[in-house]
Amino acid sequence: MLAIGTTLGPYKILVPLGAGGMGEVYRAHDSRLGRDVAIKVLPAHLAATPEVRARFEREARTISKLNHPHICTLFDVGHQDGIDYLVMELLEGETLAHRLEKGALPVAEVLALGRQIAEALDRAHRAGVVHRDLKPGNVMLTKGVAKLMDFGLARAHGLAPVAGALTQSPTVAQPLTAEGTIVGTFQYMAPEQLEGKEADARSDLWALGCVLYEMATGARAFAGESQASLIASILKEAPRSMTELQPVTPPGLERIVKRCLEKDPEERFQSARDLAFALEALVTHSSGTAPALEAAALPPRGRSRLLPVLGVVALAILAAAYFLGRINASRSDAPALTYAQRTFGRQAIFQARFAPDGQTIVFSAAKEGNTPELFIIRPDDPEPRPLGVPGLHLLSISSKGELAVLAGARYLGHHRLFKGTLARMPIAGGAPRPMLEDAQDADWSPDGSGLAIIRESGGRDRLEYPIGKVLYESAGYLSDPRFSPKGDRIAFMEHPVRYDDRGTVNVVDLSGKAKVLTGVFWGEEGLSWSADGHEALFSASLTGGARNVYAVDLGGRRHAVLCGPGELTILDSGPKGRRLISREEAPLGLTVKAPGEKEERDLSWLDSANGRKLSGDGRILLFTDQGEMAGSNYNACVRGTDGSPIIRLGEGDGIDLSRDGSAALAVVRSDKPRLMLYPTGAGEPVRLDRGQLATITKAQWLSDGKHVLVSGAEPGKAPRCYLLDVPGGAMRPVTPAGTLSGLIAPDGLTLMARTSSEWMLYQLEGGSGRPIGSLSLEDDLIRWSPDGRSVFAYRSAQIPLRVDRVDIPTGRRTAFAEFSPAERAGLVSFIGVSLADDLRSYAYCYQRYISTLYVVEGVR
Known about the structure:
Layout: E1 7-8, E2 11-20, E3 23-30, E4 35-42, H1 44-47, H2 50-64, E5 74-80, E6 83-88, E7 94-95, H3 96-100, H4 107-126, E8 129-130, E9 139-142, E10 145-148, E11 155-156, H5 191-194, H6 201-217, H7 227-236, H8 242-245, H9 251-260, H10 272-286, H11 293-296, H12 313-325, E12 338-341, E13 348-354, E14 361-366, E15 373-377, E16 385-390, E17 392-397, E18 402-411, E19 418-426, E20 433-444, E21 451-457, E22 460-464, E23 470-474, E24 477-483, E25 489-495, E26 504-509, E27 514-516, E28 522-529, E29 535-541, E30 548-553, E31 558-562, E32 567-573, E33 579-585, E34 588-593, E35 601-602, E36 609-614, E37 620-625, E38 635-640, E39 647-651, E40 653-657, E41 663-668, E42 674-679, E43 686-688, E44 695-701, E45 707-713, E46 720-725, E47 731-733, E48 741-744, E49 750-754, E50 759-763, E51 770-771, E52 780-784, E53 790-794, E54 801-807, E55 813-819, E56 827-835, E57 842-857
Antiparallel strand pairs: 1-2, 2-3, 3-4, 4-6, 5-6, 7-9, 8-11, 9-10, 12-57, 13-14, 14-15, 15-16, 17-18, 18-19, 19-20, 20-21, 21-22, 22-23, 24-25, 25-26, 26-27, 28-29, 29-30, 30-31, 32-33, 33-57, 34-35, 34-57, 36-37, 37-38, 38-39, 40-41, 41-42, 42-43, 44-45, 45-46, 46-47, 48-49, 49-50, 50-51, ...
């Protein structure tokens, strides 16, 4: 044991916390950051054993991959005076094993903690790591939150097993463990592990099933008077009924546990994400908000064999039941929902419509890359089939069975925003007949006689019906025109800022009289009408979380229609309450090339890390954690591009990093947004003056580190750019109204700023701006060149991503570099690129859109 007061690097040992077969754990104080940490030490008598030391090093490598709110965080590793040690997050609380000594947990706690553990396993499995020793002693409960610990027996896919591996838990000794090639703790080991077969992610799900059983009942799922009888029980017997031991156990929970404890791995849940969704669905049902869940229940045994490509039938049924079942449960007369999944595989679905028969579906999607294609599926078809004309994006289907499409559709960098030639074609296929160039969206009138269209003219989007008659126009962008069933009104979405998905649902009659039905919400897309024409159905995020489906009547009264995990989009309405819904995943990828390295490094984290800015030396990356666990205001974080641990700076959307990496800017979004300055090292956060701004869209440091340029708008006024002295100065406008965002040059005086129609060059000390004809509104600017003569720009829709260098004096545009993410399934959109001062170190963030189409019946 280490003596109290011993120092290991900057860490001073305070008190021992415990010991196990693989290490001693101490509470220690980090003198650099002024915080207490947990230090796991490999004792000297074990360090001499190559196999044990190899496992200890593997644990460090494993944990370093796994940043997640429900996984104990690794801060540091070290070696001093022959002692190897890991520095980890100090968790205050008790282990789940200690808690279970008091008996079973309440059902709500079982569901919440079980879901958290499943989410932690999902993160580990997606990083290629199987825990192999999940048990109550390796789960810490801290402030009602589960933290998965102890990856000492974990194994990354493809690694050879360690000879003579110990089965003793590195943290908490439990009965019936022994040395040998079988690793884990017997009570929680899957049959395939006991038979000496390779453990995979489904083995961890067996263990979690055992843990869930024990949490709910207070008893272990399998027991025996000896190791032999215990192993025989696991291999051959079924556990006692949970309701027999604990009558209040929900039947849905027992079904979930039974599925986890199937002897054949093929019969279990096929991923931890499936299991997490199932538990989340049960949470919703237990609260009385999911009337359809019990009827849907679990898929029949063996069903997963029918869809080996997906391996997620449990997810398809349970998640669909969950998000499609949460329909305004306060209305006891609401009809039961039925649904059918209509697409499989990894793709991005852009638009889908019912044909006049109400059964056939036509949709446009991208299997890979950004080129849309048309598909059709009829009720008896096992899968959709392509119509055979590439580059077509569906807009609408008329009552006569004629398609309105965009030919040569060009993706504009927003998930459902395209531009192309408006054309018409028969639903049976054939060549499209061009009607109008440079259209964006359209909808057939109910009688099929004409089209309402959206197109851009003079920097403004216009809604026209008939074509040529302007009913509405906007300086932002318009989308999703939808005729009411009677054809007397057109609902549409208006987004005040181009390519920003915040917007309102509007309605206009055929005389041009318009009305706004909703406030400004996030994630607005997808629109339809109820059969009686009294309500418009739309998709949005009302709280900054997931996108759900809502209905709003002509008086502005709103209620929820469909809610659930994932991003939901309403695409069309059919007869008798039938709806076309897409459920979307949009994982974020984050890639960097660190200084001096030849290869890119993947720094993706939780599928929710939005990379924002590199420090000038390329060694520090600012990113925003946009995951659900971060809440609606997100978290600003920094991380070394060498892959070192993440540091959370505080609440807010990280926007810019100072050139030396010492301070970050973040916006906490609310009715009155807060602009925050976060030190990346020692120091306290500072709340900066926001003046009278009601919105803040961008903020960036000037090169002197003493001023910040802020883009935003005051209430009821057009956006513009402001200059702010930090930390205590006042904000003053420096560009004309109507300036959406800006990029400051190295001289601190020249500003490249975007208006609604073009890029302009301004001098902050006065003088009128001049347009930069070599840049278009599709260009996103990365940074100025160090000499201030050119800017680097990219277009988010390009695959592979091409960065251009645009010379300001001459307007010459030359290719600078190309980047492409490794995984391309579905649509790819780049949402952030950074270049360090040397222009050789970089980071890029991209988003993949992967969606599934459902038909839902019984929706009001």
